[in-house]
Amino acid sequence: MTDSLLVTHVTVGDRAGRALLVRDGAIAWLGDATDAPAADRRVAGEGALLTPAFVDAHVHATATGLALTGLDLHSSLSLSDAVAKVRAHAAAAPSGTLLGTGWDETGWPEGRGLTRHDVDAVVGDRPAYLARVDVHSATVSTALLERVPGIGGLPGFDPDGQLRLDAHHAARQAAYGAVDDGQRRAAQRATRDTAVALGIGSLHEMAGPEVSGADDLAGLLALAAAEPGPRVLGWWGELAERGGLDVVRELGLAGAGGDLFCDGALGSHTAALHRAYSDRPGTTGHLRFDTASLVDHVRACTRAGVQAGFHVIGDAAVDQVLAAVGAVVEELGAAAVRACRHRLEHLEMVGPDVVGRMRDWAMVASVQPAFDATWGGDAGMYAERLGVDRALATNPFAELADAGVALALGSDAPVTPLDPWGAVHAAVDHHAPASGLRPFDAFDAATHGGWHAARAEHPQGPLAVGAPADLALWATGETLSAVLAGRARPACRGLLVGGRPVHDLS
């Protein structure tokens, strides 16, 4: 890295003719291009837009890379289409465990999802794991079932190979455990390369024993430290009573949580609800932990000054976690809890008093606007699972932001793709207009919000002198206001991470 780098004649926000100096990884000066100081290297911006780099606040790097390089079923329009894709992939890659993700039976003309009989017919005796789009259920082949002793006795097992709950977690561990180191690193590089091309300077990796394993996370962090690319900050989703804080300390992670699965997902009918699913009246989903264990976890994290995070989608799961946080507030005081900025991941259903408690306890809402774009409205998956009234009340971004709750935007990739401009625009163009964010608030949540969520923001913001030089240069002559108003998705012309060019600035 050169000692200093000057990017000149760029538009910053809505002001053209600006220049920015980077020295030793941080912003050293920002002002009019005519007053720019000397630098070791000079890059002519030619009027391009310069912004803070995006932060994707919820990612699963290995699974995303495996989807990018392997079998992606997101575009399947029917059961027969999905089966055809599995058949073609199996023929093209005839050995090893077959991994796929992204199928969604909602709207398929056959009216059902994949079964193991569908999969066996095209993969034979080969292990196969095909995650549903929400990654909280999957269909597996008979050969994979045979690799998991006792899976038939676990909650969520179905002899058709459609697995949820504990049976799904066991099958996923077996499937991803078969991925060798070479395939794993290639997948992680694919995710990081894709992020760079999209102007993403930081990834919040949400790992855990049921997601990717400590070795996977350690390898990803080592890769990020050794090779140019986006920053990777890690969270570990395991209760303190099960050793979760030990992993946080050993790996130097940003927090203890993230995908600490307190419930499941709406698409798989496993998110925990106060009122039954509209399309499955016999179930309200599942809470995975007792409240006492969550209280113990929040208490241990707060005493250690470690950020706790929780995967919560259904309103019952949200309320359970907030009850646990409230118990620790009473015990240790609000100031100790506020200092940790505990996170709620996804937060799709927000019941009474949730917003006020999150604001009062300085909690972060880590949300995915693409969920509403993909499943929201009065005719999408949310409406099918919850009914129209509850569906239109999901993902209330504006209510959270207007109350002063900090928002950080993410993708939950591979559940939805890495797409930061898409996330910003989706946060604005919410299916329920009153829930949409103002454009600049959405952009701030996709950039500065991620730094705040990681408790690492510069006091004066991401473009202040002294802030880390994580910057994206966009191939557009428009101002940021015009880009946001026009819902544009400019191409990333260059990316700096910690002042280091990781994507061409020429």
What do you see in this structure?
By secondary structure, the protein is of the alpha/beta class. It has 20 helices and 21 strands. Strands 1, 2, 3, 4, 5, 19, 20 and 21 form an 8-stranded mixed beta sheet that branches. A 5-stranded mixed beta sheet has the order 7-8-9-10-11, sandwiched between helices. Strand 9 (128-132) and strand 10 form a beta hairpin.
Short characterization:
By secondary structure, the protein is α/β, with parallel strands linked by helices. Helices cover 37% and strands 21% of the residues.
Notable features of this structure?
21 strands; five-stranded mixed β-sheet; eight-stranded mixed β-sheet; single chain; Urease, subunit C, domain 1; 506 residues; Diaminopimelate Epimerase, Chain A, domain 1; globular; 37% helix; alpha/beta
Work out the strand percent. 15-25%
Count the beta strands.
21
Shape: globular
Mean pLDDT: 95
Distance between the termini: 16 Å
Number of helices: 20
Unreliable spans are none
Q: Which architecture of one domain per CATH?
A: Roll
* Rg calc: 23 Å
Question: Main sheet, how many strands, which sense, barrel?
Answer: 8 strands, mixed
Query: What CATH first level of one domain would be assigned?
Result: Alpha Beta
Helix/strand-derived category reads alpha/beta
Do you know the CATH topology of one domain?
Diaminopimelate Epimerase, Chain A, domain 1
Tell me roughly what share of residues is in helical segments.
25-40%
